[in-house]
Amino acid sequence: MSRPTPLSGFPEWLPAGRVVEQHVLDVLRRTFELHGYVGIETRAVEPLDQLLRKGETSKEVYVLRRLQEDPARAEADRSGSLGLHFDLTVPFARYVLENAGHLAFPFKRYQIQKVWRGERPQDGRFREFVQADIDVVGLGELPYHYEVEIPLVMAEAFAALAGVGMPPVQVLVNNRKVVEGFASGLGLTDVDGVLRAVDKLDKVGPAGVTALLATEAGADAAQAAAVLELAAVRGGDLDVIDRVQALAHRHGAENELLAQGLEELAALVGAAAQRAPGVVLADLRIARGLDYYTGSVYETVLVGHENLGSICSGGRYDALAADGATTYPGVGLSVGVTRLVSRLLSAGLVRATRSVPSAVLVAVSTEQDRAASEAIAAALRARGIPVEVAPSAAKFGKQIRHADRRGIPFVWFPGAVDADGVRAPGQVKDIRSGEQADADPGVWSPSDEDRWPRAVPAAYAEGAPTP
Amino acid sequence: MSRPTPLSGFPEWLPAGRVVEQHVLDVLRRTFELHGYVGIETRAVEPLDQLLRKGETSKEVYVLRRLQEDPARAEADRSGSLGLHFDLTVPFARYVLENAGHLAFPFKRYQIQKVWRGERPQDGRFREFVQADIDVVGLGELPYHYEVEIPLVMAEAFAALAGVGMPPVQVLVNNRKVVEGFASGLGLTDVDGVLRAVDKLDKVGPAGVTALLATEAGADAAQAAAVLELAAVRGGDLDVIDRVQALAHRHGAENELLAQGLEELAALVGAAAQRAPGVVLADLRIARGLDYYTGSVYETVLVGHENLGSICSGGRYDALAADGATTYPGVGLSVGVTRLVSRLLSAGLVRATRSVPSAVLVAVSTEQDRAASEAIAAALRARGIPVEVAPSAAKFGKQIRHADRRGIPFVWFPGAVDADGVRAPGQVKDIRSGEQADADPGVWSPSDEDRWPRAVPAAYAEGAPTP
Known about the structure:
By secondary structure, chain A is α+β, with helices and mostly antiparallel strands.
């Protein structure tokens, strides 16, 4: 077999990269669980007709068939065939409907799994990637305060990751009710047309949006100017609410929907200013997703890495799922874990302290005496210290190099047995400092920092000042 | 959307079942890491020609195509198409070859991922399931002692799971060199034929195997009887080695390969008798896999659930992977996590203490005072206590029922604010005992047992005596 080459769009990490990814996943899981979110996993496949309900994503879906299956028959019977899920929202909605009788609502769940999209791979876009989602889903109703909670849980997770070198984030929030209320207050009825136009602001600029608002939403120059004024409002405190209110007053665009949207946005911005100061920004130009979300909408940028796009997006659905009798409103956010970790690694922001779990390599004096090394290793493991035993009774210099190459900080030398069969105490060597001392495997411990491999700021590792 | 129904062969757990599965996964991960195994993940897909190298598994493979792709073209270009991996060994071998220059050998890795097989689903057989693998792979050579280590690591993981209600296991081991050496010592040259016949012992009985040995391996009655005598040898101490030696002596079947195999088997059985007494059994009838493994072979049964089949199998390969210049010998074991967890749940052996992470529900007095409840929750979380805040300021009785339904043991009542704006201390109620007392969220903690949901023996939960 010749040396295989990577598949574009299907990233894999070397062991040290996986330490960083695992740290990110562990922090997300712990944060979600501290907030009471229940971990679930769904199968990787869904019936194709379920995956295609939204229509627009059809070209991204990977369809499965068994190798021995007749392809023509599978094609004809499309409704029965299976595809890989392209997000965790569609499977979660299905899980809720399937198990509604066994779940307690409001149901708070997290879900960390791979998803697949047959897209053209590019920087930050993958064909296989990990998402980490939290959602709260209600039975018939879902109080607004969960729209405040969800981005604050994520802000807390990202704050916990700042310690290992992840740049700060900005969570950008908007609310469909504000934009829809404002637009209809201006006399514009094609709200989706307005949203599509505003969404192009970065690409086509204000003049381009004005033209689009005219052709797509029938807006005259004054209406377009007002929409652009709204889209320019951005800020992290309650002042943004006043500014939108003043704008609506000036354009005679006040109405009940707008007032309700502003009340919601104010609750979110107000709580965020207290609980995660500087992280959450109301940004009235955020329009992506407002066509299917019904209340709050969220995007998240990594400060200094805005070109990566959003690393965490979501919003409120009035009907995440529905069966004949019942509607299940929901609100959720999804972290693009692979996109984030890929940047943390490729930009040299975070590194692992070592590429193996072991804090200690127990040396082997002779193959005949391997059991003595195994016994030392077992005693250390029983006390929660990760240990490996040297692969062979090579010269100690070679065994030390074995540890050094893997970043294992300590090498343990078993004591020799004297002529009377009495074993001398072993010694442990810190191979970074060269310090070596007698040690008892029932007592000795590495420092907390050395016990497990850790993710750390990469710049810190280079000797640069700690941020 | 009508209520969806489960897909046969694609199991999913309700939240309490997922707590049990997550516990199993956490114990496996921790045990593997304590022994120095590096965690990696590989992509879910491999090129189809790689997946089909073994030939026999072809009908199990799920092939992928993008929905918009021309199926005729994809079919013609089969070598370029992708399939879902059906185990973690093929992807690991490919990962080793692809990254050999970046890995330090011997490379010890663990890998916990889903795999897919398009088989007909039945009890204990799934189309999507989780495997947890450990392997050690060497560069050119791999010392025998890793064949001793691998099953002992697994035995340690299973022992750690006994505390939550998993039945004991028996790890059954054999060695290709013993069977091959014995068979060739008898004058039988078609070793694979001998192995295939012995593998059918359970199905066709001794007379059937004798007939198969004649037709498949050209064995006469005396040779067949000797093979059956070998297959009957089973035991957990070094006595088994003596028995095989005596048998070989009696049949004049002694040779160097047999001696080497027995020396290896003795090393494994001897170490296991010391480090995991009663768990590892030499069983000379274990033949499954001996056609592709080259040394040790392992199977694991759950005592009292032998009908489930092996929950953890593997062995030694002299060439796990190979490129032009180099061979990478390996030894590994793979836990069928879904098969195991499915049985632990369906047989009522293990249950979760609750279905949500939260140890505490903070009640909400009025919606206006929700921030006070959020502040209490934040103070508890900062000390590592999982907490959720009540969804609405319903009557306290309803809020307590909310906790009770989820198994949340504690409800926290924020203190009221008096006319002077001074807040009284809050109180925490253990809703199991009804006990209620003043509490400070900066100091109070649940017991270690109550802090997180745990997996526990289900029988214990019913009030039965602890095993």
